[in-house]
Amino acid sequence: MISTSDFKNGTNILVDGEPYQIAWFQNHKPGKGGAVMRVKLRHLKKGGIIERTFKSGEKFKALTIRRQKKRFLYKESNNFNFMDMDTYEQITVHPELLGKMVNFLKENLEVEAIYLENELIGIDLPVIIEMTIAEAEHGIKGDSVSNTTKTAKLETGADIHVPLFIKEGDRIKVDTRTGEYVERA
Fold first, then answer.
1. In whole angstroms, how far apart are CA 39 and each of 54, 64, 75?
2. Which of 5, 28, 43, 76 is the one with CA 20 to 30 A from 104?
């Protein structure tokens, strides 16, 4: 159990039976009454953020988050298969758990699986990954006056906006958090 005085950014706690991570907190002492702790909590499974206020000294159950390195192997129908890097054990993950990350999963990509009390709650991709452009339209000469982009298709089938000079077969770096082009690889 941890008290509100033990709160730190990134601490994982159980609130009303749901797992949350503390994203922000502030100790507040109003003129009358006891001190309170204002907290922004990020839901560990759904990702949404809520604001709550707790009385000073309230206690919560601390949660343990564990990360394991995995390698993406292949997609089979709608499921994605990963292999543990230490035990070579394979797990199947449903696309609902991955969200928009499915756009950047390519074979042999190393990822981190996030476990909450031995339950898989998510997969973290590297922030920047290198990908190949599978399809791209030709840029028209003279269109480079301003910062214009065109749509291209990545090797995984996802669409991305790239500068006009990027051609089919080029290797680029992609930010997996935003899904945006970073630079040529």
1. 8, 19, 39
2. 43
What CA–CA distances, in Å, run from 55 to 26, 93, 109?
A: 12, 39, 45
- pLDDT (tens digit per residue) in 29-52: 888 888 899 999 998 888 789 999
The two structure tokens encoding residue 26: 């502030």
Model-level pTM greater than 0.85? no
Q: Residue 119: how many CA atoms within 13 Å on its side-chain side?
A: 8
Task: Tell me the two tokens of residue 184.
Answer: 């040529």
**What pLDDT digit, counting tens, does each position of 129-180 carry?**
999 999 988 766 665 556 688 889 999 889 999 988 888 999 999 998 888 9
Q: 119 is written with which tokens? A: 């339950």
Q: Is the dihedral of CA 42, 99, 180, 115 positive or negative?
A: positive
* Degrees to nearest 5, angle at CA 134 with 128 and 140: 100
Cα separation, 31 vs 169, whole angstroms: 65
